[in-house]
Amino acid sequence: MRLSEFDRFCGIYDPLNHRYLRCVLRTDIDTRALLRGELTPQSAVRVERGHSGGSALADVLFSEIIGLIPISLRLAAVFEAEQFEGWSSYPVSIVSSSAVSEDYVGLAVTGRCSPIDYSVGEWVSDPDYPSRVLKGQGFDLDSWDGSDFFIPEGTTRIFVTERVCSCLKRERVKNVRCVRLSEVKTSETVLRSIPRARAQLKL
């Protein structure tokens, strides 16, 4: 596979913008299973304002724990209108100060592909990183189920088609970063902490 084959896919990232509300949960629930669509809560998941973010709301909110990603009802309606595949939602209630917002749902991703393939990347230098950087990552294209939203096996990463990224840009969705898989940069330090990456790159 060539790295250019992954230009049409993007990764969804938390931009770490401290202006926006960051969420926490006060209940014991498997948020990874929520994100992967493997758990359907019986009632609305109560989400509270965390300590590391601001108070502004956006169409996409991130949390202090992996897997909890509330999206606005507006954005969910856009996804439905676009007939995107590979996603679903569950009810959430966002509690901030004394107010309770029912204008969000939790994002679940039901699409799948193989584990991340780091071997398609190329080593580059970047002054923003203390070590060398791997530019690009991919997956087995034959394993992809064709969904617009999908998660690589064994991860909580969210991959999307270019169509989704174009939609996010067109709708001016704030507080989310979309990066083409061919452009994703990962430091060697981080890669050494990932067994699959170590094996594929012989680190």
Structural summary, described in words:
With 203 residues, the protein is of the alpha+beta class. The chain starts with 8 loop residues before the first strand and ends with a helix. The model has no long low-confidence stretch (mean pLDDT 91). It has helices at 31-35, 73-82, 162-170, 188-191, 195-201, and strands spanning 9-13, 22-25, 45-49, 62-63, 70-72, 87-96, 99-101, 104-109, 112-113, 122-124, 133-135, 149-152, 159-161, 177-180, 185-187. The longest helix has 10 residues, at 73-82. Strands 2, 3, 4, 5, 6, 7 and 8 form a 7-stranded mixed sheet that branches. It has 2 domains: 3-13 and 111-201, no CATH class; 22-109, no CATH class. A hairpin with a 6-residue loop joins strand 12 (149-152) and strand 13 (159-161). It contains 5 helices and 15 strands. It is globular and about 50 Å long.
